[in-house]
């Protein structure tokens, strides 16, 4: 179903995110018939370029990052016909009149995508208003990182609030656009099976892992100032935690869903310094280590973090959430594992061993759900038990007609046009997440607090394993 006609201005239109994600996502939505022939996309950046040169840039981006067999070859040229470019200075006067002339005064949905560093958000927001570019159907989309601590997030929120209403602000966390992340809500609240057991009475603990096999690569400049805690934990993992732990919202709408997520963040207890482990990857014969990659021998930035979080509410008191994320780990594998408690009494005696149900939601790759079920080991040897997986891979279960999983940005950009904020972070939610994160990061400023080295291709530092061992638990293997 096509969305209504819209104009989308991409500030930072020549940047990396536009090239890798935003433009290819728009193209795929165009091919799917959703973007519609009346939509216009206007790239805006400092580079001097005309429409033709920008279209060449977009063609290159799509060839590199948007190859899609569902698109007919002539669709690319038709899509490019809907793209324009304005040379613009976010902090000066250049280009704004030209942008205004381009937009005209058509009564259409207008979205401004701030695909730039947060340092420019305030300038852009102010100029959109002073040049009279905003109307009631105007939305602004802002990318992470949304600040680097509570104070900076508050000030970004305040800057945006001077010019836009909260209902016009779309803060992106691309994890919320992932199909499997949305599936978390479908699994929890679309089935009767899970929710009655989804609490501390039945759940021993929950593990959330977002493991990456790649290193920081060319993003060292940004990453070294952020680290895993700011880059992944405060946002992506926090969102996974919220969707896993929240109460059922009364309906699937932006207010109800975000209210429930916010309650989870506010219920998070402080994390004791002994409950956090951070690490930094070492190099191999062929790959540089973290310090080498960022070009700073003295960097104490973490490329891995694992911690034990506690949620102080009736549902979760006593059930810890172990969270971990890192780069250069054994595999790219993200999952949420709900580890249930032991059965209260084993009728099979001690020989049967210890068996636990584990529900694993695989977020990527190989998206699916696996439920570990205990059954009898076949054979005449008595009543011996064995754990087997009830395994469902979504692509197999849904069949080929379900198509490829769309990229998160496709879903999120279309939601902006539709005016649906459910999968975007509200200002108070982002601030609450920083409020919880800040003391953890501040504790690392203390002298002597160094990240532990870990080998490329491992599961992270040994101390992270110890974090669970001392509680009589263990991490699931990263594979
Ligand atoms: C980004 C982080 O937000 O998410 C990156 O800045 C990280 O460091 C990326 O690699 C992971 O996203 P995905 O979609 O590949 O899991």
Automatic annotation (TrEMBL):
What would be an example GO MF term here? glucose-6-phosphate dehydrogenase activity
Gene3D superfamilies from the UniProt entry:
Dihydrodipicolinate Reductase, domain 2 (3.30.360.10), NAD(P)-binding Rossmann-like Domain (3.40.50.720)
Stretches assigned to the Glucose-6-phosphate dehydrogenase NAD-binding domain: 9-183
Q: Where is the Glucose-6-phosphate dehydrogenase C-terminal domain?
A: 185-476
Q: Which InterPro entries does the record cross-reference, listed alphabetically?
A: G6P_DH (IPR001282), G6P_DH_AS (IPR019796), G6P_DH_C (IPR022675), G6P_DH_NAD-bd (IPR022674), NAD(P)-bd_dom_sf (IPR036291)
List its EC numbers: 1.1.1.49
What keywords does the record list, in alphabetical order? Carbohydrate metabolism, Glucose metabolism, NADP, Oxidoreductase
Q: Provide the catalytic activity annotation.
A: D-glucose 6-phosphate + NADP(+) = 6-phospho-D-glucono-1,5-lactone + NADPH + H(+)
- Positions annotated to bind substrate: 174, 178, 212, 231, 327
> Which Pfam families does its entry note?
G6PD_C (PF02781), G6PD_N (PF00479)
Tell me which residues this entry annotates as catalytic. 236
Quick one: which residues bind NADP(+)?
A: 12-19, 46, 144
Which pathway? Carbohydrate degradation; pentose phosphate pathway; D-ribulose 5-phosphate from D-glucose 6-phosphate (oxidative stage): step 1/3
The top EC class, named as a word, is oxidoreductase
Q: Which HAMAP family match?
A: G6PD (MF_00966)
Its annotated function is as follows:
Catalyzes the oxidation of glucose 6-phosphate to 6-phosphogluconolactone.
- Family in the record: Belongs to the glucose-6-phosphate dehydrogenase family.
Instruction: State what protein this is by name.
Output: Glucose-6-phosphate 1-dehydrogenase
Q: Which gene encodes it?
A: zwf
